[in-house]
């Protein structure tokens, strides 16, 4: 399992007066009891509750009312989405959190059984949250990505996440872009010299929007550092000049 900081907004954080209600809603995730709608994606079907899911996503709410051609009766097939991402989106809708470390079905928790690595998964979740108009989920995805980038910037997952965030719906991912750029600038020397970071260099070479932002930020940071180096000796000169011992 990856060593990333976990960002959560779990039912445990609910104020005490509301916690029983929040826990009750969370317990209905992946529970067919009282369900009144089915969502299919890939080879999985989830039995969901329209009043819960529809209240968090106006897009899915329209599907429940028959406004999507993919919907029929109490069923909709999400043909263009990833099953593992849809599952975690639904988990968020019920529990206000999702897992970015997960495996394919069935899983023996073998590393090769990952559906997606965590940082790339968070980018995909952001895209899905934007598609279904769940802003708080998009914010959580960006926060989870940022937390993982602190320690996992050296991995291929970081590079793959950058590629995806600039390739798919980039206009909605400005916060993720800013995090990726600042992280890359902080570790620029390693990313361009360490043999483990070849995937990053490959992505940077074919992602001009990222490379341009990265270069601009790097030049800005270097200029700032240079100005600070020049300013420090001057401060010492003025400090010495004001000292009584200088005369």
UniProtKB/TrEMBL annotation:
Record-linked Gene3D superfamilies: Potassium Channel Kv1.1, Chain A
* Pfam short name (any one): BTB
What superkingdom heads the lineage?
Eukaryota
Q: Which PROSITE patterns match?
A: BTB (PS50097)
Q: Locate the BTB domain: which residues? A: 35-102
Protein name per its UniProtKB record? BTB domain-containing protein
